[in-house]
Amino acid sequence: MPFTDIIVLVFTILGSLALFLYGMKLMSESLQRLSGDRLRTIFASIASNPARAIISGTLVTGIIQSSSAVTVMLVSFVNAGLFTLSQALGIMMGANIGTTVTAWLVTYFGFHLEFSLILIPVAGLSLPLLFLRSTRNKAVGEFILGFVMLFLGLQFMKNALPEVTADSAMVTYISGLSDNGTLSLLLFTGIGLAITLIIQSSSATIALTMVMCHNGWISYDAAAAMVLGENIGTTITANIAAIVANRAARRLAVGHSLFNIFGVIWMLAFFSFFTSLSAKAAELITGFSPYSNAEAVPAGLSVFHSGFNILNTLILAWVIPQFRYLLESIIPLRQNEKKNFRLKYFSPALMSMSEISMLQAREEILIFGKHVTYMFSLIPEYLIEKRENKYLKIQKRLYKSEEQADDMEEGIRLYLTRTAENDLTESGSRKISSMLKIIDDLESIADECIQMERTITRKNQEKAWFTQEMRSDLNELFFLINAALENMNENLSREYRPGILAKSSELELKINELRDQLLFRHNERLEKGEYSYQYASFFSGLVVHCEKLADHIINVNQAIASNVR
Description:
Layout (H helix, E strand, L loop, with lengths): L2 H42 L5 H15 L2 H14 L4 H14 L1 H13 L6 H12 L4 H26 L8 H10 L3 H18 L2 H13 L5 H14 L2 H6 L5 H23 L1 H16 L10 H20 L3 H11 L6 H4 L13 H31 L3 H33 L5 H36 L6 H26 L7 H27 L5 H29 L4
Helix pairs in contact: 1-2, 1-7, 1-18, 2-4, 3-4, 3-13, 3-18, 4-13, 4-15, 5-15, 6-7, 9-10, 9-11, 10-11, 11-13, 11-15, 13-15, 13-16, 14-15, 18-19, 18-20, 18-21, 19-20, 20-23, 21-22, 21-23, 22-23
């Protein structure tokens, strides 16, 4: 083949893959917008039951058609403390099963049904939908367009790779590679791994493998070995995401790799048996054997791919606790590990997770709420602490926590802004707006805590000691503020719903009434000369900061309530 023809062939294949991948991207994003609320419900229902976790992982991955996207999202969830490692391992196993849906779609729509001539007319159906104002209708249009682009890419790929005859140089060369037994299996497994690392999509790589085998470029056994390598290659995305995550998230990423490596090892040990089994299954489905008829190849590889992931899950699902212990021995637990991590966000390089990303954002906002609650809990202790070393230690914690709060606010804002760049449902857009308001008020709560620290520091520097009555009054106010913060976190942890302002408004009213009472008693004591105006300014300053902090709390609750239809 002339060199120029080779260059054209390579770029034609790359272009076909690009079309295939972009079609997957459009389908994934539109399905998220169409079923985002349902996906959130599925995740919210996950408990410690491994079976439910596996089923949830299978369903969600089958819907959004990307195991890489789901596993990267799981890394974020474990990093945020939303899921335990055991729960995430179950979901990850289910994700491996769910990703086989794409292979079956490709098998039946891309190989068995000859509808390439109607793909362009089908794309025409999406045109009016794309220009409608309804986000849901636009999502349907994008799904149709993505579906068309995916299978057009597959069709171009099939046409780009010419079929070869049994006596061609290509077949002779590959047959030579296939005659080395176990070494050949490892070679083709490595090729599948390498291609997946480059393309960053196991579904696209499996589609390419199907086309190569269908067109006679590689044997069925070589294609099956490549599928095994592709299962390992798909784990790289989660491992990249986990580089900047906490140790719990890194354990999940390593677990994803070990899960697939373990499966590949035992599958290679019984390779001939399982390829023969998949060939027989394909023969039952299509009436032909993939060893003798190219039309049966896609079905055979789909059976092999699904069988690998289902059997691997059935084996390891029974030993999830032991698997977790293994991961914790590889990446050991550290003292206070769970207390010190800061949340990170990850998204796959290709797949956008607009609707599902908001679930991650909500969880991180909850952690942000708990973070500022922890900051405020230091204030009462800081007020009465007289030991200098302990006093300085609390001061250092407050300022470090304030820096972390700034980082959290900035990180969440950037994440939400990027999420908002994608098309969202009306509900999703409203939630983004609400979340931006919430993080602004949470950061203001942290600022008020620092203002209170500075007031207390100036008070101590001027040796303005509070009386027992003043301390008791402040403790009463601190107690109500803490109750309001706990109520705020409770509201943040639940699905946005009507009636959430009832308790919040009641606490706000109590705080305002107590503030008025404290300032009234404070003025009476001041007039009686029980303490100087200098001391009084510090007391009233702390009360005012508490009032401002409470205002930000009620703002958060109102922002949550604004999401309710």
